[in-house]
Each structure stands twice: as structure tokens, then as C-alpha cells.
Design brief:
197 residues, Aminopeptidase, alpha+beta
Length: 197
Amino acid sequence: MENPHLSAPLTGWNISLESLAEEHRKPLQQAGAEPAIWKYLSVDASTPSVFDKWFDWSLKLQQSEKEWIFVVRDRADNQIVGSTRYLNIESHHARLEIGHTWYAPTVWGTSVNPACKLLLIRHAFDDWKANRVELRCDARNDRSRRAIARLGAREEGILRKHMVVRDGYVRDTVQFGITKEDRAEVEAGLLERLEAA
């Protein structure tokens, strides 16, 4: 599997996924200002001071090529509406995880999430020749768990006591996977949803 660096944005279905850069700081902070966004993430970055720490940490990971972080732009109104990333990149095993995804509440339940996932899944399998794409979520996060299942990813189990998150809570993590054999069915389902939107 090749390095997941993007030289150009991934675009389609009225969204664009752009590599995180300093120019995104202010619009991304505005998109992430609702505390409900961060409920199940490791930090509540809804305030400007905490967001700046989160952004600096993310930018550092991007620059070190340990993770590839994207901002999500809604091309209908040219607004930044969230962020997602490739993480846990294992080139030798040709696998990676799509995660740390969040969106402004204005796009919850819209075509934004399936469009993002379709672009990321295609890029992983077509351009990087991945064998497997993983997705995970906090077991308490019913909305995220349902959204991942709706993508067509297979729920593979629960990693018990997997992570220490905000306020010291030790969370269970739900593990999902999409293999290269699964991808055609997953993509067909996502395309059907996007065409119906």
C-alpha cells in the first residue's frame, strides 16, 4: 500500500475532501462550535482555545504523515462542514482506518457522510490497493454505530475496555470492517443512497 498523501482534493457528490492546512483553522473551528459534535470524541473542541489545541495536534500528525486529515467542504455553498481522517495506517498489511469523523449538525442525516465515505473507500482501494478499511466508534454512540452499519460495513465485534477517553471513561469500541471483496456491495449501496438524495 502506498503513502496516502493527496496531491489534490477528492471531489464528488457536491463535496470536496481537502488535506488539512492552516487556512482551514477558522472555518473548521466555526463548523465545530456545537458541543454535541464532540460528545463521544476524545476532547470537546467546541471552544476556540481547545479547538486550537486539537487543530495543532491534527496538523502535526498530518505533517508527520502518521495520519491524513481532511476537511469536508460542501461545494453547494463552499462551506467547511467537518473533518475526517485516515489513521492506523499499516502499509505492510495494506489496511487503514477511516475515523475521527465529525460534522456540523446542519449536515447530520444528509448525503455528506455517505459521499465522504464513498470517496475515502474508493481512494483506499483503488489508489492505495488496500486489502481492508476499518471503522470504529464508541459503543455508546448509537447514531454513529447506525451510520457506519448503513454504509454497509460489517460489524465484527466489540473491543472491550479499548480506550480511555474524556473524563477518564474507559470505552468499549465497536469494530467494523470492509474488505476488498466487500467493497463492490458497499459502493453500490452508497451510490444508491446518493442517487436517491
